Amino acid sequence: xxxxxxxxxxxxxxxxxxxxxxxxxxxxxxxxxxxxxxxxxxxxxxxxxxxxxxxxxxxxxxxxxxxxxxxxxxxxxxxxxxxxxxxxxxxxxxxxxxxxxxxxxxxxxxxxxxxxxxxxxxxxxxxxxxxxxxxxxxxxxxxxxxxxxxxxxxxxxxxxxxxxxxxxxxxxxxxxxxxxxxxxxxxxxxxxxxxxxxxxxxxxxxxxxxxxxxxxxxxxxxxxxxxxxxxxxxxxxxxxxxxxxxxxxxxxxxxxxxxxxxxxxxxxxxxxxxxxxxxxxxxxxxxxxxxxxxxxxxxxxxxxxxxxxxxxxxxxxxxxxxxxxxxxxxxxxxxxxxxxxxxxxxxxxxxxxxxxxxxxxxxxxxxxxxxxxxxxxxxxxxxxxxxxxxxxxxxxxxxxxxxxxxxxxxxxxxxxxxxxxxxxxxxxxxxxxxxxxxxxxxxxxxxxxxxxxxxxxxxxxxxxxxxxxxxxxxxxxxxx
Length: 480
Prior knowledge:
Elements: H1 3-20, H2 22-31, H3 36-56, H4 66-84, H5 86-90, H6 97-108, H7 124-139, H8 141-146, H9 149-152, H10 157-163, H11 176-200, H12 205-216, H13 234-247, H14 251-258, H15 264-267, H16 269-288, H17 296-311, H18 326-338, H19 351-369, E1 378-379, E2 382-383, H20 386-412, H21 417-428, H22 449-463, H23 467-473, H24 475-478
Antiparallel strand pairs: 1-2
Helix pairs in contact: 1-3, 1-4, 2-3, 2-7, 4-6, 4-10, 4-23, 6-7, 6-22, 7-12, 11-12, 11-13, 11-14, 13-17, 16-17, 16-18, 19-20, 20-21, 20-22, 21-22
């Protein structure tokens, strides 16, 4: 294995984290708040770490193969968590490094689970850093790194395959570097559009930036403890609802639409399923919560927002849905597992996987009735290869096993059944708020450190599509 090239890329990643801390540092300096020292220490540690790793891996030779790609992706996200937590801990706003690490990994993985009881106690610099790490994690720190790989003289396909959010990833351009730059360009453009719309709607510029960053990342961190409910604005709710749905869709479709091919949305089977699930979820929850709202417009406002927030795995809240009937909460739990589309910033199993699994189950029933029939599974009118089908089934099995094991462990730590199950689903699907004691009006501060470490692992595994981390942890990966 070419360890030197992995170390070299990790060094460049650490230097990038240092660069990313400059903006929050300047905000802290301008605001004259007490987080300046913590951000300065974090920046210095990132610079030192990056420089040392670069020196240790001077002039890396060879090429980046699949094994190095998987290792780099896993280590890069882990390193991001450890380095990104430094400003939080050094500033003294988190009681332990485990808490700071939990918050940071929750940010980079766009989960949105928090241990903060009051978010407003954080200074502006840390609030910006908290939102910025979600924005960077949204499209993937690794994808951003791919844009500079030509300078290193290596290709990035192995990294992109390991990190891309979904069972398949459309190559919008022939070269992977061009694809990465293109995706980030779309990402930045849509983010800017949301900032403008939120600012026009009366949200302060700082808050608009923070919320646009975390909306497009489907992350859900907010500079307000009450999340979007703090603004009590129907306009803001509608804007964020629309942008959450945009962020949860495949970015390849946005690229096609920007090039004039809007019909691609309707031709995409996954997008049709995605919107269909959203509409059905809204209708079911509207029916389940009948009588809970004073008018139909009010019900539509809160239900559509919360359904979009959970389906896209963003995790914003305008209503404490723990107070909703059990039927509505059960639907939200189901939506947590599904998540957004492949090629989006959302987490969860992805709509495409769900669709392929349903088609696979339907085929098996047909084969029981007609044993000699040859039935192919098609997605977007294209036959699904055996390789992708095996990957989808394998992913589902690993997802279920990890969910069961982690839920059992959380239950042994003293959490009730609903909290144990929903906390694991919320972290594995990168949503943030769960149900019961980890609901939208609560937080994860009360969970023991062992539970926080386990949920941190669940966030990483969920964000990296399970396989990436499990491959690196398997003994076979390290054999020659």
